[in-house]
Specification:
The protein is an alpha/beta fold and about 500 residues long. It has 14 helices and 20 strands. Helix 9 (about 290-305) links the parallel strand 10 (about 265-270) and strand 11. The chain binds ligand BES and zinc ion (2 copies).
């Protein structure tokens, strides 16, 4: 889809629809007022009789009947002026783009200047419009033809020509973030018979060649040599060969340091011998959402080119039961030498991350952020709206919370209490892979903390946020692509010297 910024007057634009904005409880202002005038006061009339309220997410369609070159004007409700922010803008744009697509409006025009208020800079506002619009229009149509046609293009109409370069920058960044998030959504939505560890590696190769990233794909032989007993243990039950994928972006040639992003890539989690109930087991095709986010974030970072080095690490495997599968009671040895007693083969994410995090530490990557659909317990604790966030470093977690907020991804910090470590103690090995009945997201995070040494680290448990059961704003039913935008914004912030690394 093409997104353009042009200088001009919105009332003269040739398109299928134009979108103007309205705050709740306010009269049409600025561009909305100009369009209202061209429509002989239709908007003010509809506002007066209560048909248009300007409520957040409301999309009111007015047919222009020849009064404007476009057939349709959509009045997008922005909600209350004082509550308005970038995340609201993303949601509004996602909603109106989808409404217009349903009406077969394939060329959409809108403006930025009438909502560029409250101190929000138009460059970031247009970025939010583009991001929200593209993500709201996202669809997964690899196996079924959908009944609607794609939107062909969005035009941002700006009357002040001097502002065009800044708006173009905003459009470009919005596109890059939306493309990255859509790639992660695609990977997660793919069925597990297609999205195997090998397919993840192939996609990583494509991203690497497009973005000139360094790539390594380690197979089970390499893992054996390196001593990745935990990842190999999980992979044993499956016929699909496991892959450890690393992607390297070098934006700061002068520095030896690199930050590390690690993503859980379980392409299907049946639970293994500790098998899951069959109800909803199919959702476990999305157990590689953390890995997908890391691949996609690296791709987006390569396009945005921040002055920083970033390495993405994705341990990818299936978790299946079979005659060769890992069994409860088995003991595995991770890359850092620690032995793990496997009490439950369904707690496999922490096993593969044990090796991936140890590998990241061994490579000297710092700080580290991992993303994983790790525990059902996190979903019980926080629901599906918040990503569980754990850290051993106050400064780093502050930055991650800040960047997630910019990206519109909701995080909630949970503690890592020393005294709960007791629960992970094993009678026969250094550690065991499950705690007791309570605080499961925390004991899982404490398990991971054993493999990061002293490296500043944030763990994001995205079990609840990686997919959505309903459509809303720029979120579509299915994969959300969570984490991509936070990781990218974090790389940009750290590149600007946002933290000692
Ligand atoms: N992939 C699951 C966690 C999960 C649950 C992700 C729901 C998305 C939605 C993970 O591997 C798992 O099975 N965890 C177990 C751990 C338990 C055995 C200690 C869980 O949460 O039940
Ligand atoms: Zn599991
Ligand atoms: Zn899992």
């Amino acid at each position: 889809m093409e997104i353009k910024v042009i200088a001009g007057d919105i009332t003269q634009i040739e398109a299928d629809a134009i979108v103007v904005n309205l705050f709740e409880g306010e009269q049409p202002g600025d561009v909305t007022a100009v369009v209202d005038k061209a429509l002989d006061g239709a908007i003010t009339h509809l506002v007066k009789n209560g048909c248009i309220k300007g409520k957040f997410g409301e999309v009111s369609i007015i047919h222009t009947l020849g009064k404007l070159p476009v057939g349709v004007v959509a009045v997008a409700g922005l909600g209350k002026d004082q509550d308005f922010d970038l995340e609201k803008m993303r949601g509004v744009a996602g909603g109106y783009c989808r409404s217009l697509r349903k009406l077969n409006c394939h060329r959409i025009a809108t403006v930025v200047h009438d909502v560029a208020i409250g101190g929000i800079n138009p460059e970031v506002l247009v970025e939010a419009i583009v991001e929200g619009g593209l993500l709201g229009l996202y669809k997964f149509a690899n196996y079924k033809k959908l009944e609607y046609e794609d939107v062909a293009g969005i035009v941002i109409v700006e009357r002040d020509g001097d502002r065009i370069p800044a708006l173009e920058r905003g459009v470009r960044k919005g596109e890059i973030l939306a493309e990255g998030t859509s790639l992660a959504r695609d990977m997660v939505n793919e069925p597990a018979n297609y999205m195997t560890p090998s397919r993840m590696a192939e996609i990583a190769r494509e991203i690497a060649s497009e973005g000139k990233l360094e790539i390594n794909i380690f197979d089970s032989g390499d893992m054996e040599i390196m001593g990745m007993g935990a990842l190999l243990g999980v992979a044993k039950g499956s016929k699909q060969p496991p892959k450890l994928i690393t992607l390297g972006y070098k934006g700061d040639e002068g520095s030896k340091n690199a930050i590390g992003f690690v993503g859980k890539g379980v392409t299907f989690d049946s639970g293994g011998i500790s098998i899951k109930p069959s109800k909803d087991m199919g959702e476990m095709k999305g157990d590689m959402a953390g890995g997908a986010a890391v691949v996609a974030a690296l791709g987006a970072i390569a396009k945005l080119k921040p002055k920083i080095n970033v390495v993405g690490i994705i341990p990818a495997t299936e978790n299946l039961p079979s005659g060769s599968a890992l069994k409860p009671g088995d003991v595995l040895k991770a890359l850092n030498g620690k032995t793990i007693e496997v009490m439950n083969t369904d707690a496999e994410g922490r096993l593969i991350l044990a090796d991936a995090l140890s590998y990241a530490v061994k490579q000297g990557l710092s700080p580290l952020v991992d993303l994983a659909t790790l525990t059902g317990a996190c979903v019980v604790a926080l629901g599906t709206g918040y990503t569980g966030t754990f850290s051993n470093d106050q400064e780093l977690v502050g930055k991650v919370l800040e960047t997630a907020d910019m990206a519109g991804e909701k995080l909630w910090r949970l503690p890592l209490p020393e005294e709960y470590k007791e629960q992970n103690k094993s009678e026969i090995a250094d550690i065991k892979n499950i705690g007791n009945r309570y605080g499961g997201a925390i004991t899982a995070a404490l398990f991971l903390s054993e493999f990061v040494d002293k490296t500043p680290w944030v763990h994001l448990d995205i079990a609840g946020t990686a997919s959505s059961s309903k459509e809303s704003g720029y979120v579509i039913k299915g994969a959300t692509g969570v984490g991509v935008r936070t990781l990218v914004e974090l790389a940009l912030l750290l590149a600007e010297g946002g933290m000692r690394i």
